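#structure-requests
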Amino acid sequence: MWRVSPTFHDVPQPEVQHVESTFSAEGLHVVQHPHFGRHVVTSRAFNEGEVVAVWRGYEISESEALALQPAQQEQLLQVGIGRFLVNDDPLCTADFINHSCEANCGFLDATTLAAMRRIEPGESITFDYAISDSNSFVAFECVCDSPVCRGSLRSDDWRLPDVQRRYAGWFAPHIQQLIDGATNASPATTNRPR
């Protein structure tokens, strides 16, 4: 649900009841930037932990996500391992929140984005897609221009020690489970018979 692309009017909706609409906090605005394209900035301050956006929609499986056009895949929010949130409503402010390798927002749960630190008026609202995405179609070249830019985003960036340190406590639950599983399965902590 992050980069600019068409809405999902041509995607069949499964038999799941549609829940409330996506929420974008007051003070968020979509602006055009010559380098970043459309992105979200704030006209007010956000305190650490304050909710910035909550995405709503219905879940589809990974096989259903892979059957979508690439432009449609770019609008998905991964909410579990092999599970994606799709919304056939028109794009709203929260849908234009961009990736940054030095983000200012993180997840409280699979769909709720909050400020990781105080965010001042005029700042772009961003999150590092590595904290929510582990799917094969998330890969792209990054243009965030952050001093810590990784240059690209890949499906296993959540494994990077720097990413894990930077966003500790702010990963979407399914990515935190992957991190915990990888940590518990590492040779240093695995009790294997010799």
